[in-house]
Amino acid sequence: MVSPRAATLAAFAQYRCSAILRSDDAAVVAPALQAAIDGGIRIVEVTMTTPDCLDHIAALSERQDLVVGAGTVLSLEDAKDAMGAGARFLVSPVVDPQLISFCRQHELVSVPGTFTPTEMMHAHRAGADLIKLFPGPANGAEYLKALRGPMPFLKVFPTSGVTEDNIGAWLDAGAFGLGFVASLFVPEDLAARRFDAIRDRAARMLAKVEAHTKAASSAAKTRAALGAATAAAAL
């Protein structure tokens, strides 16, 4: 039987992107999240700084087609509240071994925030499932590629600095997945209640992720087939 944590990780591996809402405008939270969902996003993160965040996590967690988590988790109290609301993964801007351990104990996926190679290794050794790259450096994709050179085992999930235009660059650099924050929930669209724009943008972003993932999978199969043919010819 697949554990809840393993099932959540499998969803991240399948979808490879999430919608992350951070807003202090209570009126836009539900419709903005729904817009992203209508665009096809299936992994949703509601930050703990969002008004009524636990209520939104609880409501979304009732849906079987979504994987819902909490962001900006800074304490065990936050973690317990988020878990109680139904969150399946917890994201933090920092590395806190206590939060990582809490996630392991309760079958939640942990996504601590890191920036340096040392922080990433500390998080990995503490048992983190995914590694959030935060904040995003200006040369984001190049930075990630350099990091994964000596540490290809890291499952890095960039958030800030990810845009509709650089999705391919991040994935080419080895990103395990991508978190869409302000580039999806554009502040001007939220202020103007242009939720259709958020929906359409989510659909475009998701399509780019899916197309890149499909192309990468096809290329990997081709390389494997060529390798097998070469090995057979050498016999």
Characterization of this structure:
By secondary structure, the protein is of the alpha/beta class. The protein has one domain (4-234): Alpha-Beta Barrel (TIM Barrel). 52% of the residues lie in helices and 14% in strands. It has 10 helices and 9 strands. The chain has a 6-stranded parallel beta sheet with strand order 5-4-3-2-1-9, with helices on both faces. The protein has a 3-stranded parallel beta sheet with strand order 6-7-8, with helices on one face. Helix 2 packs across helix 10 and helix 3 (53-61) runs parallel beside helix 4. The chain is globular, with a radius of gyration of 18 Å. The model has no long low-confidence stretch (mean pLDDT 93).
Walk me through the topology.
Elements: H1 4-15, E1 17-21, H2 26-38, E2 43-47, H3 53-61, E3 67-71, H4 76-85, E4 89-91, H5 97-105, E5 109-111, E6 113-114, H6 117-126, E7 131-133, H7 140-148, E8 156-158, H8 167-172, E9 178-180, H9 187-191, H10 195-234
Parallel strand pairs: 1-2, 1-9, 2-3, 3-4, 4-5, 6-7, 7-8
Helix pairs in contact: 2-10, 3-4
Short description:
This protein is an alpha/beta fold and 235 residues long. The protein is built from ten helices and nine strands.
**Largest sheet at a glance?**
6 strands, parallel
- Alpha carbon gap, first and last residue: 41 Å
Percent in strands: 5-15%
Could you state the CATH homologous superfamily? Answer: Aldolase class I
What is the residue-averaged pLDDT?
Answer: 93
Low-confidence stretches are none
Strand order of the largest sheet: 5-4-3-2-1-9
User: What's the CATH class, please?
Assistant: Alpha Beta
Q: Share of helix among residues?
A: 40-55%
Number-wise, the strands total 9
User: Could you say which structural class the secondary elements and strand pairing correspond to?
Assistant: alpha/beta
CATH architecture: Alpha-Beta Barrel
Morphology call: globular
- Spell the H/E element sequence: HEHEHEHEHEEHEHEHEHH
- Individual helix count: 10
